[in-house]
Amino acid sequence: MSDSRYRVFGGNDIDQPSKDQMSAACDLPIAQAAALMPDAHLGYGLPIGGVLGTKNAVIPYGVGVDIACRMRLSIIPGNYRLSDRDDPFVKGLANSLRKGTRFGVGCHFQRSGWKHDARHEHEVMDSPVWEATDHLKELKDRAWSQLGTSGSGNHFVEYGLVKVSLPLSKALGIQPGIRIGLLSHSGSRGPGAATCKKYTALAKEKNPAGELSWLTLDSAEGQEYWAAMNLMGEYAAANHECIHDRVLGLAGLEAEAVVENHHNFAWKEDGMIVHRKGATPAHEDELGVIPGSMASPAYIVSGKGHETSLNSASHGAGRRMSRGQAKKKLSWEEARADLVKKGIWLLDAGLDEVMGAYKDIDAVMEAQTDLVDVVGSFHPKIVLMCGDGSRAED
User: Fold this and answer.
1) What is the DSSP string of 74-140?
2) Number of domains in the chain
3) CA-CA distance, 212 to 34, in Å (whole number)?
4) pLDDT of res. 108
């Protein structure tokens, strides 16, 4: 069943429950425009891959629980194969991942037994916005302790090979060719989740619509959320910066260029509040990173500024199985065989994150050629995610 109020990119590959969620969002009196990206799947309130423009209102669940979840790619000079696990350089890269960040729900950077127990120092922790409300005051210490950590689920930090095209080289001011890359995916950790929870509860009191409840931006609560959301955006960016600085520092490497973007956020654009829940901003010539899975490429893209998509693109390949389904249907034996075939060293991950749980990233990219141009690619070689107790590594 189609709904003429929004454009679907990806056609028949998008499940009907996701389309139903998008239609429900379009029923809201504040809704002005919408689009559904080709990686879309069921979420809370808005589907993942849902883009919604609203009039003077913000939907906390339309932004998402992990506010300002984002990608960061550091491009590093040098051309290495990264395929020999016994090579001292490759071993050093793997160790820098293991020592450079921590994974898991509620994890803190500080941990007894670590050589470096001091918190990360970053100017984001000096922002006066932390003192603006009791909510943010209570979160500040937690935020500082989690700065430099990666969380769980589909968050990762990984090394790989970057193919830099001529257009990308011109945009970044670097030479074209093959480079080493460090790619990370994570967001605002516990503070972002706590902010979503608090302001969703307030939204349900003010403008009840279940998980699509909203706050107007001329209300005190709406202004508080907007300030907190933007602080979480700064915090998420700082989190990636700390991870990259530490991991690259441990490996003795320096980046020559960086590409990064949010994909769980709301922006003031074209007279609307544009929510991109699991969607990448893709204004004309805007660079971003769209990842696949632990064994498939990520793509560096340049936006085309497509109005019907609200200047957006997918944020990844998108899940084709729920986490529960993946754990029941998939196996490490099959996943490891694929990883070995592709020359990928998986240090740790959960079974629900293996390749079969995700859609084909190349099919997703093919469905959005109107939205972005591919200007580079990242091919994972050493991958670290949050383990779930299963045996990811041989």
Assistant:
1) EEES-------TTSHHHHHHHHHHHHH--BSTT--S--TT-S--SPPP-GGGG-GGGGSSHHHHHHH
2) 1
3) 14
4) 74
348 contacts: CB under 8 Å, gap ≥ 6: 103, 384, 385, 386, 387, 392, 393
- Using the predicted structure, report yes or no on whether residue 111 has a pLDDT greater than 50: no
Looking at residue 201, its pLDDT comes to: 98
Nearest to 166, CA basis, from 174, 176, 157: 176
Q: Is residue 336 part of a domain?
A: yes
Q: Tell which wins on pLDDT, 387 or 265.
A: 265
For residue 92, tell me if it sits in a domain: yes
User: What are the CA-CA distances from residue 239 to residues 72, 109, 125, 276, 384 (Å)?
Assistant: 10, 11, 11, 20, 17
Paired strand residues for 74? 182, 258
| Residue 2: inside a domain | no
| Residue 59 · residue 229 · CB < 8 Å | no
- The range of the structural domain enclosing residue 102 comes to 7-385
- Token pair listed for 183: 């790619």
Residue 392 has pLDDT above 60, yes or no: no
Confidence tier at 116 by pLDDT (50, 70, 90): very low
Is 394 within a domain?
A: no
Which amino acid does the sequence have at 149? T
Q: Residue 243 maps to which CATH number?
A: 3.90.1860.10
388: pLDDT confidence band, cut at 50, 70 and 90? confident
* Tens-digit pLDDT profile for residues 12-33: 779 999 999 999 999 999 999 9
Which residues have CB under 8 Å from 173's CB, separation 6+? Answer: 257
Residue in the block written with tokens 């429950």: 17
Q: How far apart are CA 315 and CA 6, in angstroms?
A: 18
